[in-house]
Amino acid sequence: MEFKKEQLANGLVIIGEVNKSAKSAAVGFFVKTGSRDETKKINGVSHFLEHMLFKGTEKLTALQVNEAFDRTGAQFNAFTSEENTVFYAAVLPEYLLEVTNLWTELMRPALRNEDFDIEKDVIKQEIAMYKDLPSFDVTDRCRKLHFDSHPCGNSVLGTEESIDRLTADQMRAYFANRYAPNNIVLAVAGNFDWDQICSTAQSRCSIWQKRPASRKLDQAPGSKKKERLEKSNLAREHICLMSPGLSAQDPKRFAASLLATIVGDDVGSRFFWELVDKALAETATMQFGAMDGTGVFCSYIRCSNENLPKVLETVRAVFSSLSSDGITEDELTKAKNKILSALVIKNELPMGRLVDLGFNWTYLQRYRTVADDINAIKAVTVNNIHSLIEKFKLGDFTQLSLGPAQ
Amino acid sequence: MEFKKEQLANGLVIIGEVNKSAKSAAVGFFVKTGSRDETKKINGVSHFLEHMLFKGTEKLTALQVNEAFDRTGAQFNAFTSEENTVFYAAVLPEYLLEVTNLWTELMRPALRNEDFDIEKDVIKQEIAMYKDLPSFDVTDRCRKLHFDSHPCGNSVLGTEESIDRLTADQMRAYFANRYAPNNIVLAVAGNFDWDQICSTAQSRCSIWQKRPASRKLDQAPGSKKKERLEKSNLAREHICLMSPGLSAQDPKRFAASLLATIVGDDVGSRFFWELVDKALAETATMQFGAMDGTGVFCSYIRCSNENLPKVLETVRAVFSSLSSDGITEDELTKAKNKILSALVIKNELPMGRLVDLGFNWTYLQRYRTVADDINAIKAVTVNNIHSLIEKFKLGDFTQLSLGPAQ
């Protein structure tokens, strides 16, 4: 395993971790932009742009883009979150250069008016579709309720209205600023030749224009509001809880992940034993979401409508026993083993490694080995977790519940 | 990479593929039983049993089972399909023996009446929950419509009624027959010690009683029925199409996968270009499902209600152009690259390798290397695909559509 780094004059960072024993390789462009970098007026533009990158360049039609990927057999995709837009592909090593070349081209898309108009319908269909997914819907709405006017509350997809209003020119202006090379990391992991990747990036990306691209990093205390919404199409009650957590830059982020695992891992957590195993809820999980300069603890619970009061009472009891009695050494050891094995298994595959490699650079501007993360997790103590519990009141949450009409 | 095989006197097969350079290891019990092995009376019992295995043994409570997994940090789970129930775990190599030991214990569960009664509610909640997932619901209903009275049409979850009626004694009787050692394969992949696994299996599983465990393998021509159902809670139209395919034992199964990829891969397929790229549908995919002695081509399409007629017309045009004009060399090459890279990437991880290893033994009673599969895929010709198109009329399908009330 060997780490490599280069930076072009225009600010584009290229990083790579070479693993000659891997059977595949993965490449990704990590663009530091997402819905939190949007104004209300252009809400949804980051995700819209993600779609538009597949519509082609001055030289390539969408059909040719698709055919170019198809030739390589790449497993490729992209995703947009509140703060990142990532384009990636995993391929057999012999196709890595071809697929990297292709991504470098796509990162300078044509953004044609005709494509923009057609894609508007696709995006609006996607928004409509997510209305059929209550677990997504409730989280999206709760994020808005929690972050209030803070831009981290912006919906990634945007709304039907914001997408309707969006113009191609607004998109192009956003693109020019946010897809500036100094706001992008090109990362590669697995079995590949570093020099070839660098010379490809150099010849393809050097002409990209540097631009100022900053991000507001205000703290978000969270609204702590509580709401229930009704939807006639629902059979179950979907509940989302959010409270402030710490940031992706905070050294205590590993302790926060361990805490969320202890409280709300799929199985074996306090939520699991108190809610799922007792058949009060079908699902009850908590995740810690580390973000740029901020963060959230986010729980999602699904249960029958009649169980709602009992579920909320149980959740409060779980949080209050955490505050009064803390956690045990045994719980911490188990959570560590879970997180450690997930980490090692994920990073065993070049595609999984790529994600950690890219995000570590995006958030920290530094390289961390898998061993660095393993050691940081192993070093967390019960007292570290207790300090977190004291500082971040999990019981003091924003709550959105989405359920059937009563 | 080294393949190993043992068989206990009671019929339990133990197979392993040792890869000393892997950073993790995976173990799984592959039980050859699923909803197609159930009668209508006990429909859902296989999946119910999968849940019950986590409820403990004569020696272990459910809490202790969970704690035992937690200690190892295993990524563990189980799934039940129409014809298999699989219990698996991926762990760091130092925990493999511990987790294998645990699974051998769990494979002889206590099946306590109290647990059975509580778990009934959990299963019924799961059934209710899937009513909120239209893509699942439509596929489940279409499978029933397509297979008609053939047991492959049985729902994996069962119905609220069948679960209500099910008794603990019926479950125990089913368990005794279907979880006989001669109906189970224990598979291990990744970085592990073969001799240790064998002696664990020997000492733990040798007392399991052999029993006759067969399966009906009738052919299923498919009903070709067409139905539309309305659900007031839906915003979109969900369409499932099924037609007969070939079996998991058929050497032409690789050609069938390639055909389904050409027609209905997520991106770059005929469905993609005719339906998704043209914004007629949000999703349009086809998959080939190889089963024991039978198989299906299964398509899933989601679109607006108003687009439904146009979507179905386009689907028919896609199938009819396949029959009249066939496919191109270029399409086949691309499909091969996709399937090859997915295969290699999946098998790079011990957990992914485990699944192929276990299922190859379950269906074929033989070991296939990744290279065997790669070569079989590379050998498929355009003419092979044309023979399939001629034999399996994709346009002659069972159709179920689930959409909003009109």
Structural write-up:
By secondary structure, chain A is an alpha+beta fold. Chain A contains 15 helices and 11 strands. Chain A has helices at residues 45-52, 62-72, 96-106, 113-130, 134-147, 160-165, 168-178, 194-205, 253-264, 270-276, 308-325, 329-348, 350-364, 370-378, 382-391; strands at residues 2-7, 13-18, 25-31, 75-80, 85-91, 184-190, 226-230, 237-244, 283-290, 295-303, 398-403. A 6-stranded mixed sheet of chain A has the order 1-2-6-3-5-4, with helices on both faces. In chain A, strands 7-11-8-10-9 form a 5-stranded mixed sheet. The relative contact order of chain A is 0.16. Chains A and B meet through helix 2, helix 4 and helix 12 of A and helix 2, helix 4 and helix 12 of B.
Helix content of chain A: 40-55%
Radius of gyration of chain A: 22 Å
Q: What structural category characterises the helix and strand content of chain A?
A: alpha+beta
Could you give a short account of the major beta sheet of chain A?
6 strands, mixed
Biggest contact: A-B, 58 and 58 residues
Q: In percent terms, what proportion of residues of chain A is strand?
A: 15-25%
**How large is the count of helical segments of chain A?**
15
Question: Rough shape of chain A?
Answer: globular
Q: What's the order of the H and E elements of chain A?
A: EEEHHEEHHHHHEHEEHHEEHHHHHE
Q: Strand order, biggest sheet of chain A?
A: 1-2-6-3-5-4
N- and C-termini, Cα separation of chain A = 58 Å
Mean pLDDT of chain A: 96
Q: Write down the oligomeric state.
A: homodimer
Low-pLDDT stretches of chain A: none
Number of strands of chain A: 11
